[in-house]
Design goal:
The protein is α+β, with helices and mostly antiparallel strands and 107 residues long. Helices cover 21% and strands 33% of the residues. The chain contains 2 helices and 5 strands; from the N terminus they run βααββββ. Strands 1-5-4-3-2 form a 5-stranded antiparallel sheet, covered by helices on one side. Strand 3 (62-71) and strand 4 (76-84) form a beta hairpin. It is elongated.
């Protein structure tokens, strides 16, 4: 199952990460994953590390990453993740959206 979130919960993280062409998109994705898994799925996350490093996405484009998620209980999983730039056609200044694979059930 894939989790697809419209960034409502991650908006404060995006504001902290910045906006515009200097946004580090993969850093914002990692923060969104950590916040969602910890606060919504109630699986406390120790760290998230995604590759490749994505600085920004082109209008209407998507970046595909692999992320290693380490939970505070010592377990971990690898998730396929996507950063989608929503700005295409006549839309402007929309935030990126993120999706990633759900973690396996807690032990």
């Amino acid at each position: 199952m894939r989790i697809n979130r419209a960034l409502l919960a991650a908006l404060p993280l995006l504001a902290a990460a910045g906006c515009g062409p200097n946004t580090d998109a993969s850093y914002a994705l990692q923060n969104a994953m950590k916040a969602h898994l910890t606060n919504v799925d109630h699986r406390p996350v120790d760290s998230v590390s995604c590759t490749p490093r994505v600085h920004d996405t082109m209008r209407g484009a998507a970046a595909h990453l692999h992320c290693l998620v380490r939970f505070t209980d010592g377990t971990s999983y690898t998730a396929a993740a996507t950063i989608q730039n929503q700005n295409s056609g006549g839309t402007h200044n929309l935030p990126d959206t993120y999706s990633w694979d759900s973690p396996p059930p807690a032990p």
